[in-house]
Amino acid sequence: MTTSAKRVTTTLFIFILLLFIAYKPYDQPLYGDTLLKKLFMLYSYIFNQTLGMVHEAGHGVCYIVHCPEFIMVINGTIFQLLFPFLLGFISKKHGNIFGYFIGLFFVGFSMQYAAWYISTAHEGLYISAENSFLGIDGYHDFNYILSIFNLVNFDWFISGLVKFGGYIIMIYACFKMWVLAFVKKE
Asked: What CA–CA distances, in Å, run from 39 to 32, 70, 126?
């Protein structure tokens, strides 16, 4: 990857991070009042739907190999976080450290949506179709998981920790991309 490509990509990711902080797409409807917000919400929607498919694939694996219920339920989120990490890890393994930080950025992005999902655990064991990725009433993973540990009433706190961790990872990844693009000489 050329230095110019790294600089453009880094600038784009920093811009996405700032927009993410400003618009918090998991808290808002899928439309915006400005062109910039509309484009960002569309980007977030596409990425969230991709994460949703990966999340559901994690559950699907357990339908095939017959995992215990707890593993089946948590496996969706594990896949959702593991997928961008593995893409970054594969990039790093092939000598592309910059690609690793892009993957890491998306781990943080994914954690933001996991945090939103955790924050709704108190709403009950079932998710209404309007809040479901699949568009149908569904099972709420984190209501089940937090209920096992008697932590449903602390979903707001756990969600806050995950959201904070996601922001730290996104900021760290952007910082490291910035160092590789603008500071480190090749």
From this structure: 8, 37, 31
| Burial per residue of 101-121, b for 16 or more beta-carbon CB atoms within 10 angstroms, e otherwise | bbbbbbbbbbbbbbbbbbbeb
- Among residues 38, 170, 176, the alpha carbon closest in space to that of 112 is found at 170
Global pTM exceeds 0.85: yes
- Identify residue 134 by its one-letter amino acid code: L
When pLDDT is averaged across residues 110-136 and rounded to a whole number, the result is: 80
Report which of 100, 86, 73, 72 is spatially closest to residue 9, judged by C-alpha positions.
100
| Alpha carbon distance 7, 48 (integer Å) | 25
* DSSP conformation class of 138: E
Cβ–Cβ under 8 Å, residues 81 and 94: no
